[in-house]
Design goal:
about 35% strand, six-stranded antiparallel β-sheet, eight-stranded mixed β-sheet, about 725 residues, mainly beta, 4 domains, 39 strands, globular, Immunoglobulin-like, about 10% helix
């Protein structure tokens, strides 16, 4: 194949993801568990259709409180809740210029204190804090600062975040939905304060669902006597967390059950489980404590990295009788992490708790380690469940070191704070904490989707992209990416995974983590203004995510220094012009970096930035890592350290100052080793499975068929153009 060396010389987010834990059997597996079939596969031409089996994802629970008011009336240590016709104050008062509101006429009683300040969050929350400068104070003081509010992870499901937020901080969730924007208003009267939001969902971007602003107008009234009214006038969004989240911290603990393990002196003492204890804390939280034969490794000990304590809950009869993670409905995990310092360097080894409803803290005391959380939705109406556990040590692949076999536990004295706010009445409760998580459909597990397709059609796919004709429980229309990095490639700065976990014998390389809803902006062929055509948004997402299989985690060894050119995305200061531009004459790499013009006066003009929208081509360094360029075809480049904005140049380009560091491909090879297979022997033909996903019992919509096929055809053309026709992309299911 002819090389385009002269052209190179002339032109010369892996995104971390916290695995989603699903409500039913196959989906409750840890992310490392092998994938299992979750649906039926058919094909329509070159498009693959996956119809999900019944019950493999959580059903949608969409917002149903339009033109309603929820009244939370304090009673004893909780709240009675009443759903009534909307009580709306049309006089909003002045627009807020900062999050903080200071009350002058009264103090509002909440979470065991009286508050004269609080913070009004952009995403529909009212937050209180006892931290000076945290947006609120206890009686007798005046709080300052911007306030401390609840947060939802970028790709976190709202149905998972709802219980997790319990007891994290005192706040009121009026309509907690990330990425909203717009004005907020506050008006104080003699006996109440009225807070109003008039917000839109994000508009026009690659991660958005709409090209035009939407209306989301809701209101909170906080009364002197502690009453709280939450009212919903006009709401376009269908997902949010709504409720009251005071802190409940008495710490009263009641034992529930002890499940004994069998001691084994051949196992390291901190991994040998004597028993697993379940208890109820404050009537709201389930606490799980692992007791080991010897002291648990303390945080800071480098040997804790990779140590994992995992407890499984099976709430559906017949209960599990053996150690099979597929029987679990919910999994809670304590995982030892090496930690990460600033700039991606080493940090303090620590334990991290995860799982539906889990509180973030982990407690260690001698030979015990524990975590706790609020009951997730899977426990609704449950009076018994099977509890079992295992522990794994460091190693690849991780394997259980010790196990505790299932035992049926009777659940009593534990109240879930989750409620159906459209059905609750004043006869219910009082609730110490009460909320409802409105959300779209749950997410299929990535390994299960891949295994389903491969089992039906064979191990013939290098990549997978997923599209659905239903919305999923994610605030963005985009997706991170993941995969085993099959193909036996070395010298890119990345490690291979386990293709067998995805049902592959070794061909599968990379894929979307979750489906992209076809109704989103990137599911459309063109934007209304005509600036984005030819599924440009989709090409940006597909190409960027799938290229994470090879790039951009490279480093370069320059003298005694190892220079990180990423990680994950090329650093902003990397000189990374596209070798074969997609649409424009000057394009930066789809994986980051920029096109920098040296002005030879200590400044650099940024001719193209590090964002991959609109879709662009790949740099020579990218193509080398992909196996589509020889080392000799990668011209010397540079990295600008210590970037500082210095204005705008005469042509309107952003102007920066920076310290220029020369980098060569030999520096990259010195750090990573040579790319193998090399250019002469590397894979040149690739196959992407384009998969349309539909719910159980549904047929694919016309939009799903037409748009997924449009994306599929555009992807073939994009790949050919941006690789300089050195490689072929197919999308064949056969």
């Amino acid at each position: 194949m002819k090389r385009s060396c002269q052209l190179f010389l002339t032109i010369g987010f892996l995104i971390a993801f916290a695995g989603f834990l699903q409500p039913r059997a196959a989906l409750a597996q840890g992310q490392q568990a092998p994938g299992r079939p979750i649906g039926n596969i058919t094909t329509q031409g070159d498009l693959i259709i996956l119809e999900l089996d019944e019950g493999v994802i959580a059903p949608a629970n969409l917002f149903d409180l339009g033109q309603r008011t929820l009244r939370f009336t304090p009673e004893k240590s909780g709240y009675r809740v009443e759903n009534m016709p909307v009580q709306w104050d049309p006089e909003f008062g002045p627009q807020l210029t900062s999050p903080q509101v200071t009350l002058r006429n009264f103090q509002f009683p909440y979470s065991g204190k009286s508050w004269d300040t609080f913070s009004v969050g952009q995403f529909g929350t009212i937050s209180f804090s006892t931290d000076p400068g945290g947006g609120g104070t206890a009686p007798g003081g005046r709080g300052g600062g911007r306030g401390v509010g609840p947060s939802v992870g970028r790709f976190e499901e709202l149905r998972v975040a709802g219980p997790r937020l319990v007891n994290t901080s005192p706040f009121i969730s009026v309509f907690l939905k990330p990425r909203l924007s717009g004005p907020r208003y506050a008006k104080e009267l003699a006996d109440r304060v009225v807070i109003t939001w008039n917000l839109t969902e994000p508009v026009g971007g690659i991660f958005d669902f709409t090209w035009v602003p939407t209306v989301n107008r809701f209101q909170a009234v906080l009364r002197r006597d502690g009453w709280v009214d939450l009212s919903y006038d006009q709401v376009a969004a269908q997902d949010a967390i709504i409720g009251v989240y005071p802190l409940v911290t008495t710490g009263a603990e009641r034992p529930l059950a002890t499940v004994a393990g069998a001691e084994d002196a051949s196992i390291p003492a901190h991994l040998d489980i004597r028993n697993v204890k379940a208890s109820v804390v404050d009537g709201l939280f389930l606490k799980i404590t692992f007791e080991t034969r010897g002291p648990v490794l303390p945080e800071g000990d480098p040997q804790l990295a990779g140590v994992t304590y995992r407890v499984y809950f099976d709430v559906d009869r017949p209960f599990a009788t053996g150690m099979d993670s597929a029987d679990a409905d919910v999994v809670w995990t304590i995982r030892g992490s090496a930690g990460q310092g600033r700039g991606g360097g080493g940090g303090t080894p620590t334990y991290v708790a995860s799982g539906p409803g889990v509180s973030p803290g982990v407690k260690i005391s001698g030979n015990t380690i524990s975590l706790m959380g609020a009951l997730p939705a899977a426990f609704k109406g449950v009076d018994q469940f099977a509890l079992y556990a295992d522990v794994t040590g460091p190693g690849t692949p991780p394997a259980p070191v010790d196990q505790v076999l299932p035992r049926v536990v009777t659940l009593s004295g534990l109240q879930s704070p989750a409620a159906d706010l459209s059905a609750v009445t004043r006869r219910d409760g009082p609730f110490p904490i009460v909320y409802e998580a409105f959300h779209h459909a749950g997410l299929p597990r990535t390994a299960d989707m891949a295994a389903t397709v491969i089992r039906a059609l064979g191990d013939r796919f290098d990549f997978f992209v997923w599209y659905s004709d239903f919305r999923i429980d994610n605030q963005e229309a985009g997706t991170p990416s993941t995969g085993p990095r099959g193909g036996n490639v070395t010298g890119t700065g990345q490690r291979a995974g386990r293709p067998e976990n995805y049902g592959s014998a070794g061909q599968l390389q990379w894929m979307y983590v979750q489906p992209v809803p076809i109704v989103s902006n990137q599911g459309q062929e063109r934007s209304p203004d005509g600036k984005m055509t030819g599924y440009n948004y989709a090409m940006s997402q597909v190409a960027h995510e799938l290229a994470h299989r090879w790039t951009a985690d490279a480093t370069a060894k320059i003298g005694d220094e190892t220079l990180a050119l990423g990680p994950t995305h090329w650093g902003r200061g990397l000189q990374a012009p596209a070798a074969f531009p997609y649409r424009r004459t000057v394009e930066a790499s789809l994986m980051g970096g920029g096109v920098w013009q040296d002005n030879f006066d200590g400044t650099y003009s940024q001719l193209d930035d590090d964002f991959y929208v609109p879709a662009t081509g790949w740099s020579p360094l990218d193509l080398y890592l992909m196996g589509l360029a020889a080392p000799s075809e990668v011209p010397d480049f540079f990295f600008l350290k210590n970037l500082a904005r210095a204005g705008t140049d005469a042509k309107g380009h952003p102007l920066y100052k920076g310290d220029r560091v020369k980098v060569t491909i030999d520096d990259v090879i010195a750090s990573l080793g040579p790319r193998l297979p090399d250019y002469e022997h590397s894979q040149k033909n690739f196959n992407t499975g384009v998969v349309g996903i539909v719910l159980h019992g549904r047929t694919p919509s016309r939009e799903l068929i037409e748009r997924a096929n449009g994306i599929r055809e555009a992807w073939i053309d994009f790949w050919s153009t941006t690789t300089g026709r050195r490689s072929i992309m197919t999308t064949s299911p056969r």
